[in-house]
Design a protein that fits this description.
186 residues; GMP Synthetase, Chain A, domain 3; 3-stranded mixed β-sheet; 3 strands; mainly alpha
Amino acid sequence: MDFKDRPSIPPRRRIGPRAKDDPAAREALDWAAGHRGRPPAPPMPSAGKAAGRVVRPLSKAFGPSASELEKRWPEIVGEHLARWTRPERFQSGALVVRAAGPAAALIEAQSAVILQRVAQYAGKAPRRIRIVQGGLSPAERPRPAPPRLKPAQTASAAPPPEPLSDSDRLKALLESWEAEVKRRER
């Protein structure tokens, strides 16, 4: 078959803005509009808003959650303990508290006071405190206290002190230790 012998193909017609005046194009657009299927589904509502509508009345009836308690935690246990602990959840009548290191012993020792303060804030009193020892997440870890700097010694023209005997050095050491203990226990 030769190229010249091929039947001619009619040119394609555009269906779109240029073909609006063409009755065949208008008919095709009307048909397509009627056969497109269902419209897209509306977007889902926010899960946070839906949960808020459910939790808000429950919070009023049963008291705040542990996350709300966490906002007031420094007021309940004090600034020092709040740096090393955080409330996690209420579980079976107990307040579960995560404590880093030896802070668990301090929480245990002050549990009666903490339970009373939680009851004042939350409106419901947990029966006991359950302590979970473990590290806090990096964002919650306490920052170490800056190192204490000793006061600078003033330069004086006095000659260096004479060397002390062993008993005098021991006596001076015990006196400085006693003064430091008294200063810390104020």
